[in-house]
Amino acid sequence: MVSKDRNQGKNQLRVGRLVKAHGLKGALKLELYTDNPERRFVTGAEFTLQVPEASPWHGKSVTVREYRVMNGNPVVFFEDIEDREAAEGLVRAILWIDQDADEAEDDAWYDHQLVGLDVVRDETVIGKVARVEHMPAQDLLIVRPSDLGAEREVMVPFVKAIVPSVDVAAGRVVITPPAGLFEELPDAGADAAGIDESKPAAEGDAAVD
Hints:
Blueprint: E1 2-7, E2 10-22, E3 27-32, H1 37-40, E4 46-50, E5 61-70, E6 73-78, H2 84-88, E7 94-98, E8 109-110, H3 111-114, E9 118-121, E10 124-134, E11 139-145, E12 154-157, E13 165-167, E14 172-174, H4 188-193
């Protein structure tokens, strides 16, 4: 999870995404990005909304009226969102909350803590974190590889399976990327046929119609 400095002078933590309207009374189902939703979603808690600029909710905030778990799903009600139609307008919005400077959240970092860290794969430094992109589905570490030129960047999903370790004090993140993320995969068709495309055809070889 990444805490993003969204407003100058304020640290904010991304705590959830509104995934769909629930019922007819303005409730919304949540995808949680926090380990402590009962503390984050207390009545009266105010969240900054991350929505497209074209949205009527751009630049606005919402206040929690009630948080509950219904049929195993986290659900939130906001003040002034009274029906399903109003709730539909908030679907896919990301929720950010102000965070105290001395407040810690497990597996949460600010953008400025990650930018510039060495990216390590198999005990070898292969690049640096250039910046962090916050997408609706997940955060991305934008990595500038050491051997691919200054203009080349690789988008690395910031999930535990691919980025198992972040050590800000040591100045590095450890990644276990899937094959092909940092290098081109060999042509499967050529490999299967046993063809070495770098060698010219031998004299007498001919294509068969």
